[in-house]
Amino acid sequence: MSEKDQQETRAARAALYIDGFNLYHAIDRLGQPHLKWLSYWRLGQVILPQKTQKLVRVVYCTAFYPGSAGKRWRHEQVIAAQRAEGVEVALGHYVHERMMCRNCGDRWEKPTEKAGDINLAIHLMHDAFEDVFDHAYLLTADSDQAATAAMFARRFPEKRLTTVAPPGRDPSVHILRHASGGKIKLNAGHLERAVMGATVGKARRPDEYAPPEG
Fold first, then answer.
1. pTM of the model
2. Residue 95 has what pLDDT?
3. Pairwise CA distance, residues 208 & 111, whole Å
4. Of 18, 59, 88, 145, which sits with the fewest C-beta atoms within 10 Å of its C-beta?
5. How many domains in the chain?
């Protein structure tokens, strides 16, 4: 067996689970639109220790926001690019909830994303039961996933979990309590290293996500 084969045999299997909207809104606040054109597979490779771990799976949880055709097309290109990179995309959906202003009585319908949190949790737990990975990376700052982390730690004490905070966000202290692998705080530098080219498979980078000159 070659030295490379021996290193791969020793490498722990790593998997990354991404809360798509949690990450998207954090990147949006950076004011650098080109960072939205990310390879999530490459991002996983950027954050995990290459000498001791090998990335085997990435799951991206998201949903199409109702409304703008342009926004829908951009999201479709992002999803197509992720799939071309080997990422599994778990799609949720939106519902319209009736809202009312208590002061003026005005009524409207608010689009509310559904299934994203559940998709994130069940994919991580399903893959743990199937023994897909040794070390999971959970990319979200949403403390709702603390219950997922707690169950994971209780059911799979032999596996490790690292909580990954989107750029500009602090890790959830509630998730961190159950994260035996500690925490990672993403920054723009991590994202820059994972930006994709103008075309990925059949996906085309939207003009809005073109990198700045230079």
1. 0.86
2. 47
3. 24
4. 88
5. 1
